[in-house]
Description:
Structural class: alpha/beta
Low-confidence stretches: none
Shape: globular
Number of helices: 6
Distance between the termini: 29 Å
Amino acid sequence: MIILYSGGIDSTLLVLDALSKGHSVLLLHYMYNHAARWSELEAVERIYIKLKRKYGKSIRLSRVSMPIVSDSDMGYGVEGARVIGNRNAVFLNHAINIAYSEGIETIQYGAVLDDDADYVDCRIGFLNKINAIARDWGVLVEAPYMFTSKVELLKSVSDTEILDLTSSCYEPKFVEGSWIACGLCNSCQSNQV
């Protein structure tokens, strides 16, 4: 299984769920120019090291640089969404290529119900369209949390040790060696249980 992996809560829950069910997982972390790129990369590295110790060969990580155009930086502590046009389609099409070449049948990404209003590529219509492409290559794209709010997901988690390592803020600030979430962007707002 391939999981598009940002190092945020949604994709981390996908990884934990897949590994707990005995799946082998290839994490694809896409690096591109956006405000949270460094905090995401740090989270990905920390979480991967921890999971690699526990799951060994069942988990792999590939870091992929993507020249995606992003003008989503609005500033630290500014409310709202950060829309990067067609981002998930670019990532998923690349992941379909990898899945096809490696004989992997399933790709998952962390769309949640909270994303529906602001992100076209986190809606069922988009998922159906990308699956029309993926099917031609023998691949299925899933968004298992698409109809579940992040609050519901977080309430179902009993072990938060790994989740404490995640980075989901759209525009965190680096202060005295740590990334500080803004608390106001859409992602921070949806993380509040």
